[in-house]
Amino acid sequence: MSEQYRAMWEGLGIDMRRHDMLMGALPAIYEQVYLRQPARPQAMGFYDFVVSEIHGLRVKELMDHKARGGKVFGTFCVYVPEEIIVAGGGIAVGLCGGADFSVPTAEQILPRNLCALIKSAVGFKIGNICPYFQASDLIIGETTCDGKKKTWEILDEYIPTYVMDLPNSRTPADRELWISELRRFMAKVEAVTGNAITPEKLAAAAALINRKRAVLERLFALRRARPSPISGLDALLVVQISFYDDPARFTQKTSELCDELEARVHNGQGVAPANAKRILYAGTPMPIPFWTIPLLIESAGAVVVAEESCTGTRLLAGGATAIPRNGLDEQLAAIADRQLQTNCACFTPNDARIEDILRLVQEYHADGVIHFSLSFCQPYNLEGVRVQKALQEAGVPVLLLEGDYTEEQAGQLKTRIEAFLETL
Ligand code: BJ8
């Protein structure tokens, strides 16, 4: 991949020495984590290809889009509405960082006691290591946790950063505030792209994104089968790629994957024996390439059957956006009503998240829950206490973990995960 795209990366101002180091390490890690898994669905070949081209083909597509006058928006949260970006003729790419590689770079300017997700992402930007960041015309932040909201002020010194004001509760007044924020965001997208957003364009964009959400829902529904037709590692990869691949292509390819999984379910074929322990992951998002938790769980013989996270079921909360055709105000309200069903730990109260987790245990026939929070993530760390209590009261085995992206942490997490699985 490198030679073909070198000029493009250099044009984007990438630090080629560090980028070569990162790209040089990835194939061996991917081989070890992904390609050695037994009984993988054949359709995973597409996602393997996407990873092999991780800083290549899709970035080239973004650059072609920009050459035609298009704009790219970098995002960090499922509350940033992709359909509004698409309706304005833009492309949205999820930029959350999942690699320890860039964390030390971020620690040169940020306090160390911030979650690894924020540090990894910021390190990719200030180290000029990520071509998606470099290709972005505007970064969209949000006022979710304190760590993110103060980081945007710093990040804005490196790249233009726009902030959406997400309320931390969900009263009728908060809903009105969020709808007004969607309207303000829509105006920003129009100003950046130079394209007016009409009800027709927004309806068409929402339909495109709904199709992507629907195929992911289909994937998750298939994971309820025993034995599970796909590993948690592979399902996570599919979701991670959904954040930056072309939505129409992603929907098509994931639909092909689901066809294969459906046949597997029909034939009783799985990635692990039918009696393998089934684990529900709950907690902070797992951005690419943070694969440690499912890797540790599945290497120990269990299978992750669902993720209650924004790289999982929280991404799909609220189902499809039922888009009315009678005008932008109603359409924005419909988007807000769907989004506000995403039970992020940044909200208070957030009892619905605990109800979600209890429901998912039943729906996915989970034998236990592993709740993982990144260190220094106060919302998920604190909410984990109540999640643990609710699960214990319901008689569901639960393990509460926290950690970061480092190898040292992986060693400690391995011991605790293996001990937990033995008790099931
Ligand atoms: S809707 S989960 S994608 S905010 S891990 S940066 S919370 S300190 S990521 Fe999230 Fe939107 Fe919520 Fe989902 Fe802060 Fe915690 Fe770090 Fe986090």
Structural class: alpha/beta
Number of helices: 18
- How much of the polypeptide forms β-strand, as a percent range? 5-15%
Query: How confident overall, as mean pLDDT?
Result: 97
What is the H/E order? HHHHEHEHHHEHEHHHHEHEHHEHEH
Radius of gyration using CA atoms only: 21 Å
Number of DSSP E strands: 8
Polypeptide structure, described:
- The structure is a single chain.
- Strand 7, helix 17 and strand 8 form a beta-alpha-beta unit.
- It is built from 18 helices and 8 strands.
- It has a 4-stranded parallel β-sheet with strand order 2-1-3-4, with helices on both faces.
- It starts with a helix and ends with a helix.
- The chain is of the alpha/beta class and 424 residues long.
- It binds Double cubane cluster (BJ8).
- Double cubane cluster binds next to helix 7, helix 9 and helix 17.
